[in-house]
Write a structure and sequence with these properties.
By secondary structure, the chain is an alpha+beta fold. It is 21% helix and 24% strand. The chain contains seven helices and 15 strands. The strands form four sheets. Strands 3-13-8-15-6-5-4 form a seven-stranded antiparallel β-sheet. Strands 7-14-9-12 form a four-stranded antiparallel β-sheet, with no helix packed on it. The longest helix is centred in the N-terminal third of the chain and has 15 residues, at 34-48.
């Protein structure tokens, strides 16, 4: 038996687990019920409407430099919603994904690292997530003093995610080498804008694939797969996504030791994380 077998459990097939480890991404269908998604969407919209306050750079546009007026944002990004709204902690998405992650990495103690809300506003063709690897945004093993990098990033589709409204796209198998490609800031520096980008390389076999996802379903990707998404071409349909990432407890503890919490307000140097060498001592 596989799929949603009880209120707090979802069982993967062997093929789904193999797909994750081979391609770097797998789609899981019908993970949450309509009522469960609606409850999450209610909290999500309170953040997007600024009914729940999020300080500094943790509420920003992921596609533009910092300082752009809110009305002009294309990808509304809210980091760490459970930090800024504690009643949202231990919600159904957290409980279900904590079960799934143990099936993907049964020999590693995985724990929640961070969460994030993302909204591609309707008709925003520039609501683009440039090609990247998640490891490009995070401290490397040297800065943390660890060897393991395993990651499961779960993305819940609060709205149907399609090619038209900018669903996830990825390069299957691009993370198998476990190597980080050279990234560059989209803005002139990380101080002006948070986003990074890399170029696809057909000589390395880079072929993109779409990962559409129905409301209530999820995608799960690892830390090295190359992925991104295009803009929202739908004039009347947004694309809301709830992101929740798990990493080994040793990694999360090492991140926190150098002052890295995934908040854009962290003082740790986001460009190189070199100051982590001193902070971890």
């Amino acid at each position: 038996m596989s799929g949603r077998i009880s209120s707090d459990s979802y069982v993967l097939t062997e093929e789904q687990i193999k797909t994750f480890h081979r391609d770097g991404l797998v789609t899981l269908h019908d993970v949450l019920t309509e009522d469960e998604v609606a409850e999450i969407a209610d909290v999500f919209d309170k953040f997007m409407n600024r009914e729940i306050h999020v300080p500094g750079k943790d509420f920003c546009d992921m596609s533009k430099p910092f300082g752009i007026p809110f009305e002009e944002w294309s990808i509304v990004n809210c980091m760490l919603p459970t930090r800024y709204h504690p009643p949202f902690q231990n919600n159904i998405f957290e409980r279900i994904t904590s079960v799934i992650v143990r099936q993907i990495h049964p020999s590693i103690e995985m724990c929640k690292d961070y969460d994030q809300f993302l909204n591609k506003r309707p008709g925003k063709s520039d609501a683009v997530f440039a090609w990247h690897q998640d490891m490009g945004y995070w401290p490397n093993p040297k800065a943390l003093g660890v060897e393991e990098t395993a990651t499961c990033t779960f993305s819940l589709a609060i709205d149907d995610s399609t090619e038209e409204n900018g669903c996830l796209r990825y390069v299957p198998g691009s993370g198998l080498s476990r190597k980080l490609r050279q990234h560059a800031p989209l803005a002139s520096s990380r101080d002006e804008g948070h986003a990074l980008t890399i170029e696809l390389d057909e000589s390395k076999g880079d072929v993109e694939k779409l990962a559409p996802c129905q409301r209530g379903s999820i995608t799960v990707h690892d830390e090295f797969v190359i992925h991104g998404s295009s803009g929202n071409k739908c004039p009347d349909r947004q694309r809301r996504t709830y992101v929740l990432a798990y990493r080994p407890r040793t990694v999360v503890n090492a991140e926190r030791k150098i002052g890295f919490t995934h908040s854009h307000n962290d003082e740790v140097n986001w460009d190189t994380f070199n100051d982590g060498e001193e902070r971890k001592k």
